[in-house]
Structures are given as structure tokens and as C-alpha cells.
Design goal:
Elements: H1 18-42, E1 44-46, E2 53-55, H2 60-77, H3 85-99, E3 112-116, E4 124-126, E5 131-135, H4 136-139, H5 145-160, H6 163-175, H7 179-184, H8 191-201, H9 207-224, H10 230-241, H11 248-252, H12 257-272
Parallel strand pairs: 3-5
Antiparallel strand pairs: 1-2, 4-5
Helix pairs in contact: 1-6, 2-8, 3-5, 5-9, 5-10, 9-12, 10-12
The chain binds zinc ion.
């Protein structure tokens, strides 16, 4: 075996001239890019809750599977689950209040709310399919239950608006990843799946997605009976804690706090007058 040299390339195919290989590579690349573009633009789904048309290539069940699969990695990255059961229960209770008896109840996602031990990273995060997290660093800075509801409501907004699935479709497009295919095959042990989960966990949402989630958060607060003005306090807290601290989900790609405040006030007006709920 060793030292046996043949004029074969990998896979046992006879080697062709370099030029020929390059040409074929380029053609294959173009075909794949074209396919990815086609797939992205043809994969259109209407969001059952918001009614918006979205470029999404996976089903709600697949989102749920990805979220459940990614949760342990997420928990580990933020120092594990916070061991105090009372605190966990409080956050669960507020989270459930936001998804029961509001528009969120119409979605099929099995929501779970967790407190993560990390005392330094001021953050909250939602995985596709309904896994929602908040760090003790952020939780400890909040002043009341309505502010906690504001943070969780924003995260539920990311879930309902399917922002994670939108990111996965974009990842397929930009990185040529076959995320949807990997998920469809149920191949959760594969390297590609692990990489995709890694991307998701460190993923940043876009500016428009953040504003959409703020808007949705206001709606949930009102429907669940909380004062939506609490979100203004959350903005203050985020602004104060961003100096020197990292605020991954909540800061780096978020629109400026002034911009968000303005949009939050608009949303409060809209939903209080009832026009946004039709
Ligand atoms: Zn967000």
C-alpha cells in the first residue's frame, strides 16, 4: 500500500490537466451558488402569527429540534443553569404569563425559560423553537417584574418572528452550508450540524429583527397586563451596562437606544389604540 504511486487523483478518478479541473470547479461552484440563490428565494413561508412573508427553509418542528439540541451548549457557554430554583421558577412564571392568553399562545412552540449563572455577561437570548435564556448579570440589574417581562417578551418576539430560521436560510445562502438538508436528514451528530449550532449560538440578529422584536415585546406586555413603559427602563439598564461590558444579543447589533426608545413609544401608541392587533 505505502509507496504505491499511481496517476490517480483522490476518489480514484484519473487526473486531468489542471485547467480542466479548474474549469469544472468553477462551473460546479456557479451551479451551487445558483442553486443556493434559487433555494433561498423560492423558500418562502407565510408566518402564521405575523402574516409576513419570509425566506425560511425549515419547518417549525425543525426549529424546535434545533433549539432543543442547541440548548445544552448554550447553557454550558453561560456557566450552567443558575442553581436557585426560586429564581428559575419566577422567570418561568413570568415567561408563561407572556405566552398564555396572548397572541403567542397561537404559536406551536413549546416555550422554556431559563436563568443562566453567568454573572458578567448582561444578556438574554432565544433559540429557534422557544428556548429562552437570561443571565443573572442581566436579571440582577432589572428593577421589577414588568422589566423582566419586557426582556422575555422581546426574546419571544425573536421566536415568533422566526428570526433564527431566517438566519439559517441566510447562512445557507452565504456559506453554501446545507443546513436545511442536514436538519432534514436528522443528522444531528454530523460536523455540519455542530457547526451550524455553533453559529446560531454566537449569532447576532439584524437591526430590523431587533426592532420587530421590540415591537412584538410591547404587544405581549400589553396583552399580558404589564406596563409596556417598563421597556424604557430596560433600555436605560442596557445603556448603563454596555460600558466595558459585553452585551452580545442586546447591544452590538442592536439599533441605538434612542432609536429603540422612539420605536417602542410608537408601538405603545399603536397597540394601546388597538390598531396594531388587527
Ligand atoms: Zn434581540
Amino acid at each position: 500500500m505505502f509507496g504505491r504511486r499511481t496517476n490517480q487523483g483522490y476518489d480514484g478518478y484519473p487526473q486531468q490537466g489542471r485547467r480542466g479541473n479548474l474549469k469544472i470547479t468553477i462551473i460546479i461552484g456557479l451551479v451551487m451558488a445558483g442553486f443556493a440563490l434559487f433555494k433561498y428565494y423560492s423558500a418562502e413561508q407565510v408566518n402564521p402569527i405575523t402574516g409576513e412573508k419570509q425566506h425560511i427553509s425549515i419547518s417549525a418542528d425543525q426549529e424546535i429540534a434545533i433549539g432543543l439540541q442547541s440548548a445544552p451548549q448554550m447553557i454550558q457557554q453561560y456557566g450552567g443553569l443558575y442553581p436557585d430554583q426560586k429564581t428559575q421558577d419566577l422567570v418561568k412564571q413570568v415567561g408563561q404569563k407572556l405566552v398564555q392568553g396572548t397572541i403567542a399562545a397561537k404559536s406551536e412552540y413549546p416555550y422554556e425559560f431559563y436563568v443562566l449563572s453567568d454573572p458578567n455577561t448582561v444578556n438574554a437570548f432565544a433559540l429557534p423553537g422557544g428556548q429562552v435564556f437570561i443571565t443573572t448579570a442581566l436579571l440582577g440589574r432589572l428593577e421589577n417584574e414588568a422589566q423582566l417581562a419586557g426582556v422575555l417578551g422581546h426574546e419571544i418576539g425573536h421566536v415568533i418572528h422566526r428570526h433564527g430560521a431566517e438566519r439559517i436560510a441566510k447562512m445557507d445562502l452565504t456559506e453554501g452550508l446545507t443546513g436545511a438538508a442536514v436538519i432534514a436528514a436528522g443528522d444531528y451528530q454530523s460536523a455540519q450540524f455542530a457547526q451550524m449550532v455553533g453559529n446560531l449560538i454566537n449569532m447576532k440578529y439584524g437591526r430590523d429583527q431587533e426592532l420587530e422584536s421590540d415591537d412584538f415585546g410591547v404587544r405581549l406586555l400589553i396583552e399580558a397586563g404589564y406596563d409596556p413603559q417598563a421597556l424604557m427602563g430596560v433600555m436605560d439598564i442596557l445603556e448603563q451596562s454596555s460600558g466595558g461590558q459585553t452585551v452580545p444579543e442586546f447591544q452590538s447589533t442592536h439599533p441605538s437606544p434612542e432609536n429603540r426608545r422612539e420605536k417602542i413609544m410608537e408601538a405603545i401608541k399603536k397597540y394601546n389604540s388597538g390598531e396594531g392587533t388587527h
